[in-house]
Amino acid sequence: MEETKIVVIGGGGVGKSAMTIRFLQNYFVTDYDPTIEESYRKQILVDNNPVLLDVLDTAGQEEYSAMREQYMESGEGFLIVYSIADNGSFEEVPELYQTVLRVKDSEKYPIVICGNKCDLEKSREVTLNEGKSVAKSYQVPFYETSAKTMKNLESVFHEIVREIRKIQTPKKKRSKCSIL
Question: Where are the transmembrane segments (predicted)?
Answer without folding.
Answer: none
